[in-house]
Amino acid sequence: MSAQAVMGRARVEIAVGVLVLCGVVLALVLAMLGSGRRTAEGYTLHASFDHVDGLDIGSDVRVAGVTVGQVTAEHVDPHSFRADVSFTVGDQVRLPTDSSAVITSDGLMGGKYIAIAPGGASEELAPGAQVMLTQGSISLEQLLSKFVFSVANGKDAPKATPAASGKDATP
What we know:
Blueprint: H1 3-34, E1 43-49, E2 60-63, E3 66-76, E4 83-89, E5 100-105, E6 112-117, E7 130-131, E8 133-135, H2 140-156
């Protein structure tokens, strides 16, 4: 092979390598720009919860397990010390005024989302309305703590004597 042929082949390989590298960089840039960019289309509703542990801005809002919106804002009410959450619901979903909102998790280790249970009222929630029936998130740590303390307290309780249980102590 001549030196000129080797140089030509090296140039082609370098050009192909540069094009592949540019393609990978472009794909990464598009992936970074597109991640987490869901639009908040629809109308906004508000709800107040005792606890919103694990619920983040961008978390899903679901009706019957189907995503219909997302959480758009969270803040603490300085007077009630409850977490006020704003979220969107798609325009195609019109919720009754007696609907309820529950923060639940997507499995044992999954993320949190707001589950909306539609009520039976004939009136609909207007954009900007407050969902009045709410239940905050229940953390796994709180449940385990209650279980451990209830078991520990159960061991300290006095045992029932035969007389106290209503059984005769004699055989």
